[in-house]
Amino acid sequence: MLLLDTLHEGLADLEARGLTRRRRIADTPCAARMTVDGEAIVGFASNDYLGLAAHPRLSEALAEGARLYGAGSGGSHLLGGHSRAHARLEEELAAFAGGFVDAPRALTFSTGYMSNLATVTALAGRGAALFSDALNHASLIDGARLARADVHIYPHADTEALAAMLDASDAATKVIVTDAVFSMDGDIAPLPRLVELAERHGTWLVVDDAHGFGVLGPQGRGALAQAALRSPHLVYLCTFGKAAGVAGAGVVAHETVIEWLLQRARPYIFTTAAPPAVAHAVSASLALISGEEGQTRRQHLAGLIARTREILHETPWRAIDSPTAVQPLVVGSNEDTLALAAHLGEQGLWVPAIRPPTVPAGTSRLRISLSAGHGFDDLDRLQAALVRTGAFA
Fold it and tell me: Which domains can be identified in the chain, with CATH numbers?
């Protein structure tokens, strides 16, 4: 069949270029040490930055939520699916992460991808000008495409180039969109300067803090809190499937912005609400993150980050200077990166190889994701495995 032949050819091309993606099967809960495809491994692949995904308190909260509210929500948030658990989580999230704006309010979503599509498309429609960092996550890029706005891509973290683009724009509505922590480089956006530009030009500043929420700032309140920023121009996006250890996402902003999203964001209006049990578990996670245990886990994670940076800078490959739990090691070609990942895998270490189109061609890398569940002995094991590649001679 011609249609299948076309797909077979496309798959063969991906395989030839070292771009085929393959799933692995986890046999145990997400943790620093787990069983994958039947083998015991030390995992550096997940985004479970605080090691909460298998925390007994969250598991019990999820079960308790199911006992209270059942397995599913039964409908969209606007048609019977908005439970007491969802309402309580939104109130707690606004109080937790909304210190950057007066009258904060929150809206929750089933996934971070949906929250990003919803926010970008609702704020930037046809005729608006949207300014997007070149290394933004795919969900922000897709949101920009769906918005049908005039999209301007500025070089990564280049606020001077962005300022020039803003100066040249005469659009009535302008929206700046950026990741807070960039998921493949681990660096942090120049948020203070971005806020300054947003206020000067009267633009919205949408900040996706998927990889900073729970980890950065006082009590894990995120990148905006870490930078002590406050502005009515800010719209804050966060996810619950990374440091929070559960699933879903939220948007926090001035109450008027949230009401606009509730009324106009298609990915919110036209989808079934997440199970209330999930919202119930996220509430328990916020309590953990903001409490003493969350602080202890963040302190331990900071020590792991510092040690990993030392290890990676000793290798013959290019370590990107990241202060976050995302620690990239740029190898270069797809083939060499896959070979290095396979070598580590043979020694019981799961360190994923990241290749185009996720990263630019020629910058394929290992992405080492750290968790508070790791110990320094795990880093010793990673260092020894890297040395055994023979590339240090």
Answer: 23-54+292-387 (3.90.1150.10), 56-290 (3.40.640.10)
